[in-house]
Specification:
Helix 1 crosses helix 12 and helix 17 runs antiparallel to helix 18. The chain has 598 residues and is α/β, with parallel strands linked by helices. The protein binds 3,4-dihydroxybenzoic acid and magnesium ion (MG).
């Protein structure tokens, strides 16, 4: 299907918005009046620019407060409309959106509304223009799609149809009963379909709409169900995104447009109008790769955690450190980031790496070159929105290229492991890429997104959302602050699974490792909340071990101090399914307190 995006969904000048929409692969745009008013380009130049970029202008909007107003007011509205229709002729736009009136003098009179819209449509027809009437969820007298349709039907004019907007419809409820009326609208009378999702918030609907809309798949609405219903009417216009969002207004237009287009590709897959390659869900974590300008501190930390340096890359300064099934690569290659040690890449075990890369590419993920050097194994990899490189690995498949064959054993056997594997990876997202990151991991990797949770940090609020595969062998916790954050505190981390966190923490300390100190108040509170066996709490207090519990089991965990922009966590998960969000504020405060003074 054709895809379109409203200019209000992207940041920048009109030219920047159009360029971003075109580059991301959209077929058309809805031009918002404000973007046109603020543009130095003439309507003819905008038309030409769109044509050069391969974009059609699918909609011009909005016209407001047209119908069911006093007759002198309506007279002025017709005059205003004539001006706008002349403008649209110069633009080459043939559909205008009229949203239901919020005018204080508007009356609750469907017959009058229909009469006015009919006159407007008559005028529009002279200009070859169609009028699409949309019910705003906060319209003064018309606030539902079925009410707007009844008025359009009564007006009975070929140049008048309705515009359906998923936000206005689903924000008022999504019970199947309330959506059944869509089937009563003939497809050819649905002149336009606007799509937006939104997180499920209990708040004033206008504020919700103007600030929190997001792209389909990023919120809590079942947008796909709505689209299926609309397509069943025979609607064959574009799928058009209309997203008012405070973050997207500010973020760079290019990546937002790609995120937006990806959401429509995923939606079209969900409703069955297109079939990109199916997701190939990863089955485990092959490795985590750290880049560092100085291998010393991170090697000391890994050593104290019980890791052994088992292999070295044949041609690059990359060491493999291993313990149980946990593998950490330490890369000191020249290009290593100057801003300190960081998590640069993740190896994901994939049942079919090539197919995983094809899925990623179809969903607009940047595909990385398969081979960095001639002698390297060719590996399929893509870049996540936060810049993390994701490698699709087939470690135990002799017939496929294997990352491990690039490494030569250095003769150190890993000892009896206290760590069994990687429990999860926690990736702090750039503040303007959080919704994109969730949609990316869900759609490109086929992971399941859990509910997002808020975590109080002494200097801000963090939002965190985990994406996992079905058996929990791949768990990635995505988080974000409200604003650009301090990387040394909001660092990435690698959580290591152990079945004895007390033993692991003790060995770590005895080997010279430093555990993040946790305040005594935390343990006093634990004592109030839970009963522990004799001496247990004292052990946790001594070792900086935190405790949590959910209906599935218990959770004990502790943290190392931070090196550069990464730290490690030791976790003992006895059935527990969460990530210790309850303890995160204490951990974050402790990390702030321990931050090196600059
Ligand atoms: O918030 C608004 O006013 C507004 C304007 C035009 C639309 O299409 C819409 O859905 C909302
Ligand atoms: Mg709308």
């Amino acid at each position: 299907m054709r895809t379109s995006i409203a200019t209000v969904s992207l940041s920048g000048s009109l030219t920047e918005k159009l360029t971003a929409a075109s580059r991301a692969g959209f077929d058309g745009v809805e031009i918002f009046e404000n973007d046109l008013l603020a543009s130095p380009l003439t309507p003819e130049e905008i038309r030409g620019r769109c044509a050069d970029l391969g974009l059609t202008i699918d909609l011009y909007q909005p016209m407001r407060d047209i119908e069911a107003v006093p007759s002198d007011e309506f007279g002025r509205n017709l005059r205003r409309a004539r001006h706008k229709f002349e403008l649209m002729r110069r633009l080459g736009a043939d559909t205008v959106l009229v949203c239901s009136s919020v005018h204080p003098l508007a009356v609750d009179d469907d017959a009058l509304a229909a009469y006015h819209l009919r006159q407007l449509a008559d005028l529009a027809q002279d200009f070859g223009i169609r009028v699409a009437y949309e019910a705003l969820a906060w319209g003064r007298h018309v606030s539902t799609y079925d009410h707007a349709w009844r008025i359009v039907e009564a007006a009975d004019h070929p140049a008048l149809g309705t515009c359906l907007d998923s936000f206005h419809i689903l924000s008022r409820g999504s019970e199947p009963k309330s959506l059944e009326g869509i089937a009563d609208i003939p497809g050819e009378k649905i002149f336009f379909l606007q799509l937006a999702d939104a997180p499920l918030l209990a708040m004033d609907v206008l504020q919700w709409s103007r600030h929190y809309r997001c792209f389909p798949g990023q919120g809590g609405f079942d947008v796909a169900d709505l689209v299926r219903r609309v397509l069943q009417t025979g609607y064959d216009g574009p799928l058009s995104l209309e997203v008012f969002n405070d973050v997207f207004r500010q973020a760079e237009a290019g990546p937002t447009a790609v995120d937006a287009h990806r959401s429509l590709l995923v939606l079209q897959d969900a409703v069955g109008v297109s079939t990109p390659p199916a997701p190939v869900v990863p089955t485990g974590v092959a490795f985590a790769e750290l880049v560092t300008p100085d291998a010393e501190p991170i090697s000391a930390l890994l050593g104290a955690l019980g890791f052994t340096r088992t292999a070295r890359h044949r041609s690059k300064p990359v060491d493999l450190w291993q313990q149980g099934e946990a593998r950490v690569l330490v890369n000191t290659a020249g290009a290593a980031r100057r801003d300190g040690t960081g998590l640069a890449a993740i190896g994901l075990e994939s049942p079919d790496p090539a197919a995983a890369a094809r899925r990623a590419e179809a969903l607009l993920a940047p595909v990385l070159p398969r081979r960095r050097a001639l002698e390297d194994a060719p590996l399929d990899a893509v870049e996540a929105p936060d810049g993390t490189e994701l490698f699709f690995c087939a470690t135990d498949r002799p017939e496929l290229p294997n990352w491990r064959t690039d490494f030569t054993d250095v003769g150190h056997e890993s000892g009896t492991p206290g760590v069994m594997g990687i429990d999860h990876l926690a990736l702090v997202q750039p503040w303007h890429h959080f919704d994109e990151a969730t949609l990316f991991h869900r759609s490109v990797l086929g992971l399941h997104a859990q509910e997002s949770v808020d975590v109080a940090d002494p200097y801000g609020l963090m939002r965190s959302r985990a994406v996992t595969n079905a058996d929990g062998s791949v768990r990635i916790a995505l988080s974000v602050g409200a604003a650009p954050t301090d990387d040394t505190v909001h660092a990435q981390h690698i959580a290591l699974a152990t079945d004895d966190v007390v033993g692991a923490a003790r060995r770590f300390r005895e080997a010279g490792g430093r555990v993040l100190p946790i305040p005594g108040n935390y343990y006093d509170d634990l004592a109030a909340r839970y009963e522990f066996a004799d001496g247990e709490l004292e052990t946790y207090r001594e070792l900086g071990i935190l405790y949590d519990r959910d209906p599935h089991g218990e959770f004990r965990h502790c943290y190392t101090v931070t090196v550069g922009r990464v730290f490690f966590e030791l976790v003992q998960r006895d059935g527990y399914r969460g990530y210790g969000a309850q303890n995160a504020p204490v951990r974050l405060a402790a990390q702030h307190a321990g931050r090196p003074v600059r």
